[in-house]
Amino acid sequence: MFHTQKLTEEKYLVSNNKPLSEILDTAIAREEQAYFFYLDLIERADSKEAKETLNFIAEEEKKHRRFLVDYKNGKKGSTELSMATPIDYKLAEHLDEVDPDKPLTSTDIYLIAAHREKRSNQFYTELAGMHSDPEVKNMLLKMASEELKHKEKMEYLYSNTAFAQTAGG
Fold first, then answer.
1. Domain 20-162, second-level architecture
2. Which pLDDT score, from 0 to 100, does residue 80 have?
3. How confident is the model at residue 75 (pLDDT cuts 50, 70, 90)?
4. In the chain, which end has fewer C-beta atoms inside a 10 angstrom radius, N or C?
5. Contact (CB, 8 A) for 118 and 43
């Protein structure tokens, strides 16, 4: 089964009324789903470069899951994550998501992935907005930043694949 389906509101609904451990469980589940999402895309990718990039992002999602599990278990050193300021090309905001059931080009795969990372960034940003605890808020904002870095990478690859430079400039 191809795991590109959008996360359903009911399954991943979070609120500030839920305990942190339950919210972390939801985030951990999302990261697991993201990992398998990228494994599915690797199977469908048509180029070595796309496969390598998707494998890198899948491994990043695995690291995110590990970080969240450690955080939930009291290991709160968030040194693995940094607050970066990625470039947001906003392609996912302006381009429709591709139908994942059709044959996919590398360009399609990058756009599908950019949309997914956009939703993940929104998930963590909204969670951070629900929490007044500075430590929790900071950790969630770092996770949002990580997802935005992935979106940046996918949008960059999309633009370089969809609008490749020619020898003439």
1. Up-down Bundle (1.20)
2. 61
3. confident
4. C
5. no
Q: Closest Cα partner for 45 from 142, 151, 157?
A: 157
Asked whether the beta carbons of 167 and 71 are under 8 A apart, the reply is: no
Q: Could you please report the per-residue DSSP string of 112-146?
A: HHHHHHHHHHHHHHHHHHH---HHHHHHHHHHHHH
Q: Are 158 and 111 in contact (CB under 8 A)?
A: yes
pTM given for the model: 0.84
Residue 95: what residue type? L
Cα 68–chain centre separation: 14
Secondary structure letter of residue 11 according to DSSP: T
| pLDDT reported for residue 7 | 40
- What are the residues whose beta carbons fall under 8 Å from the beta carbon of 95, sequence distance 6 or more? 111
For residue range 76-106, what is the model confidence (pLDDT) as tens digits?
A: 765 566 667 888 889 999 999 999 888 999 9
CA atoms of 63 and 156, how far apart (whole Å): 22
User: What's residue 79's pLDDT?
Assistant: 54
- Cβ proximity of 37 and 109 under 8 Å: no
